[in-house]
Amino acid sequence: MELYEKSIAIPRTRALNTFDEFSSAIEADLPEGHIPVRFVVTETTADNYHCEIGVLEGGTLQSSLFQWRQRHSANGTSFNVAHIIPTGIGCRTGGHVDGGATARILSSVCDQLITHPNVVNAADINEMSENTLYVEGSILSRLMMGMVGVQPAKNNRVLVLADRHTDEQLSNALINSINAARACYGFNCPEIVMMEDRIAMNASLSDSGRAVGSIKDFDNFINVLKDRKGQYDAVAVTTLIQVTDEVRRAYYTSDHMDDDKVNPWGGVEAMLTHTISMMFDVPTAHSPMEESEAVSCWDPGITDPRLAAESVSVAYLQCILKGLQRGPKIITKEIIAPGVLTARDVSALVTPVNALGLAVMAALRQGIPVIAVRENSNIMKNDLNDLPWAPGQYHEVENYWEAAGFLSALKDGIDPYSVRRPLDPVRITVV
């Protein structure tokens, strides 16, 4: 099995293409047996949607990436918010290992916050609140699209799959991290599977500047999961990702404060976790390994604060262990059941401005309010204002402070614009 990235231009109609139209265009473009696992619109022009697709060759999935089901009502008894910060697009906030505070502030104004690993992962730090659901990115999209439900969990059995490192110190750091989690917060790990045959993960950047990559020879990983089916509830993966020393040094030492520097590792990680989650319907997260002891001992100096969590870690593992410990169960059958959150339970979506992927498209189609944060700029070139929103469905705010206030008003049934000044008088129409 292999994973690779492909670009495609899809003609733009007067309204946003339906999922079926996107799916048909991509299916016509891909060879037989090549299956899309990840999708984003990188740029919207007058004539085309310029899209990038993560593609699986040589495997099978349990559902289509574009399969969706219309929700027919919204649950008004609770207020649950989906919060996304896509990886690998240079988001000014959360594009590195610095999204955790946004999750904390948004979770304080809702009953449940549904977010994905990129938002709260920070090497050895994961401070998500008790009412946060840690959901792999493809599963969050499938939830928004009405295809799955998520059921909160307390203490998952987390299977750890890892490349067997040739450097004993780094292998020891991996094992010590897992044992530390067991001793300090009751982490449940039935097994660590060390893979002699490493998968080949290579990180790169697409023509749009987005982090992507390729993955080869991960059949053994998939076979391990198949052979142990029923013995785990979630999967933590840690592997080597090949990047050049030049890219690594430039990422950690260049001035980040005023640019859209892209985390080069995130894109290929997401390709792998999307595939595993879609194959097995289990919570999945990935953590990169250091290439060598020399790399782990390299001193980057005082880094941009957004990167600091990575500069003081060796195994980069605690964030995904803490997340997966309570990662919600994925429900694919009889999803309408007590304690299961579905698309009808999602009250709003918070997203960076300009980021257009399946979650935003699903919110558009499902009638879910969307709040776009202008301060969280990125390298994507889409104007979300141009989408065919229903009146009052799409809102732009300056920052995450304002997003939290906006959500608080929605939760209490207050028109958020009624607290802004000037307050225009109501329109009067005589017929």
The share of residues in extended strands comes to 15-25%
Instruction: Find the structural class using helix and strand composition.
Output: alpha/beta
How large, in whole angstroms, is the Cα Rg? 21 Å
Q: How many structural domains does the protein architecture include?
A: 2
Mean of the pLDDT scores? 92
Largest β-sheet summary: 6 strands, antiparallel
Strand order of the largest sheet: 10-11-1-3-2-16
Shape estimate = globular
Number of helices: 13
As residue ranges, the low-confidence spans are: none
Features:
431 residues; alpha/beta; 2 domains; 18 strands
If you had to describe this structure to a student in words, what would you say it looks like?
It is built from 13 helices and 18 strands. It is α/β, with parallel strands linked by helices. It has two domains: about 1-55; about 70-430, no CATH class. Strand 5, helix 3 (about 115-120) and strand 6 form a beta-alpha-beta unit. Helix 4 runs parallel beside helix 12 (about 360-365).
Give the structure's gist in a few sentences:
With 431 residues, the protein is an alpha/beta fold. It has helices at 19-29, 100-107, 117-120, 137-144, 168-185, 219-227, 245-253, 266-280, 293-297, 308-311, 318-325, 358-366, 400-411, and strands at residues 2-11, 34-44, 48-57, 80-83, 112-115, 132-134, 149-151, 158-163, 192-195, 200-205, 211-216, 234-240, 284-289, 329-331, 346-352, 356-357, 370-373, 394-397.
